[in-house]
Amino acid sequence: MSNSVENIEYSQSCIGSALLPGSEADGKGQTDFDHPQAKQMKPLLQELSEVPNSEAMAEVISNYLSKYTPSINDFPCIKNSYSRTILSRSESGMEVLIARWDSGLTSTIHGHPAFAMVYVIAGSLTVEQYEKTESNDIGCVIKTGVKTFDAGNYFYGQGIEGRFDNHIHRIIAAKESLSIHVYSDDALKGEVFSK
Ligand SMILES: [Fe+2]
Fold first, then answer.
1. What is the pLDDT of residue 22?
2. Could you tell me the pTM of the whole model?
């Protein structure tokens, strides 16, 4: 099932502030190419490196996870934050990681490299969408929509290469959740707009 994000509400308020050097939310990262799930999911990771576009990538992940569900307990639980376990990274910089979200976590408002995809494996993630304003307020963003994604739902976007202010959003985990993320570059390069 495709679940592209839809704008369902619009806020005029300026929420973001000056750009902060930062990273994807506040999650603690670890690169673990030898993680047991990296070995288990090797066919998926190999296939992802070969698909031609985001639509095909979404289909590959969806098909794979419809038959196999990674265990949330295989990934680190970090209180009041989320863990990032990078399973693979290609020469081009494309990375595949698993995020385990603690219940109640709200991320920063942050941007992404050109391609970003999130598939909810377990739990539920609410995504608030933002856009930069056209004013001269550097780093100012406004909320343009919100949507909740349950297990089996996913969303993705193709933005502008070389920029890290694509697909600006904030993620809220109402309950403990697990998700797989694919980025065309290091997600930690994403611009951050709020604490
Ligand atoms: Fe994000």
1. 41
2. 0.83
